[in-house]
Specification:
Helix content of chain B: 25-40%
Shape of chain A: globular
Strand content of chain B: 5-15%
Number of strands of chain B: 7
Radius of gyration of chain B: 19 Å
Distance between the termini of chain A: 19 Å
Strand order of the largest sheet of chain B: 3-2-1-4-5-7-6
Oligomer: heterodimer
Shape of chain B: globular
Distance between the termini of chain B: 50 Å
Largest sheet of chain A: none
Number of strands of chain A: 0
Strand content of chain A: under 5%
Order of helices and strands of chain A: HHHH
Number of helices of chain B: 9
CATH architecture of chain B: 3-Layer(aba) Sandwich
Order of helices and strands of chain B: HHHHEHEEHEHEHEHE
Organism (chain B): Candidatus Yanofskybacteria bacterium RIFCSPLOWO2_01_FULL_44_22
Structural class of chain A: mainly alpha
Protein name (chain B): Histidine-specific methyltransferase SAM-dependent domain-containing protein
Number of helices of chain A: 4
Chain lengths: ~90, ~250
């Protein structure tokens, strides 16, 4: 999976998560959104753990000056699993 | 009338630039685009357009925060107000230190705009460790952040896009001259700084006092400034909300 594909998948996932809480101020960030969704029982502990892992991977990528090339296929599996659990 | 059009006697000066013309102008680091110009130039229906990521993740000149006229004006208004409150004068100008300044572009524009607002009363200094080898476009003191804090004794420190997982704010709070530090970037578990040490936000630490609070600082999210921001993790055409500006002000004297 290329980094560009990963970031695109992440954006789709992020948009979907924000759509689960339409009144949430997006500027508070994904991390606070995940807390909000968990507190409102929209996601469970297992899903939260996977989403945090995906988010941390994304954070590492976008905080470096340039984009690398590829990312492990494990991450693609993780995204596929999370999307299925979210009925996306 | 679009925001970037300023009425003049010369009809050519009122002409709205095409996206291609703006792209050309953006090659000049001293050109500060408007929010609308960036939006028009890079707008896409894609979640992450190739053109946007190529521009922001450029090896020679990576862009983290996409500086624009509106944000710089709002930030300069804020800093000039704070400088006045902190007693800035021509006889005793205050120093604003930018740490992790990269190519020095943010400091360059801030100094220019603060000079218009408070002539001779605020000195803005850019510093960077030089570890990322970013090509400097403007004057930058290549020096570690701790040394820079000791050397310049700033009243205000600015850090745009603190490296992910790292925290430099404890060192800022430890420097007695520092009355406030302003962080720009993805806050609270985003891709800047350390979610707990820097922002005081984390799972499982709800009962604990955040480090900034323990050190006598108060956090304020500067919504007016944040609403003008554009950053590399936004996608023009899809909304701008990833990056924000947050102030931490000393409330308990050290």
């Amino acid at each position: 999976m290329t980094i560009q594909e990963f970031l695109e998948q992440f954006s789709i996932l992020e948009n979907h998560l924000f759509s689960l809480a339409p009144d949430f101020n997006k500027r508070q960030g994904l991390f606070n959104l995940l807390k909000h969704l968990k507190n409102n029982n929209k996601i469970d502990d297992g899903l939260l753990k996977d989403l945090l892992l995906i988010t941390q991977t994304r954070n590492k990528i976008v905080s470096t000056p340039t984009l690398g090339k590829d990312i492990s296929d494990d991450m693609l599996d993780k995204i596929t699993k999370v999307k299925a659990e979210l009925n996306m | 009338m679009p925001k970037e059009q300023i009425p003049t006697d010369n009809p050519n000066e009122n002409k709205e630039l095409s996206p291609q013309e703006i792209r050309e102008k953006l090659k000049d680091p001293s050109y500060l685009p408007t929010h609308r110009e960036i939006d028009r130039t890079f707008k896409s229906k894609d979640f992450i357009s190739r053109e946007w990521s190529d521009f922001c993740f450029d090896e020679q000149n990576p862009v983290f925060e996409f500086l624009n006229e509106e944000f710089l004006n709002a930030f300069s208004d804020y800093l000039s107000q704070r400088a006045k409150e902190l007693g800035a004068s021509e006889e005793a100008p205050i120093t604003v230190l930018e740490v992790g300044a990269g190519n020095g572009r943010l400091t360059y524009f801030l100094q220019k705009k603060l000079e218009e607002r408070l002539p001779g009363q605020v000195k803005v200094v850019a510093s960077d460790s030089g570890k990322w080898g970013i090509k400097t476009a403007f004057p930058v003191d290549v020096i570690e952040h701790k040394e820079a804090l000791k050397k310049y004794k700033p009243k205000i420190v600015v850090f745009s896009w603190m490296p992910y997982g790292e925290d430099y704010t404890a060192d800022m709070r430890a420097e007695t001259s520092v009355e406030e530090y302003v962080l720009i970037g993805e806050a609270d578990g985003g891709c800047c700084g350390n979610e707990w040490e820097t922002w005081g936000s984390s799972y499982g630490n709800d009962e604990e006092v955040p480090p900034y609070k323990a050190d006598g600082f108060e956090r304020s999210d500067l919504e007016e400034l944040s609403s003008q921001q554009i950053c590399r993790t936004d996608q023009p055409g899809q909304g701008y909300y990833h990056s924000s500006t947050v102030s931490f002000e000393r409330k308990v004297p050290k």
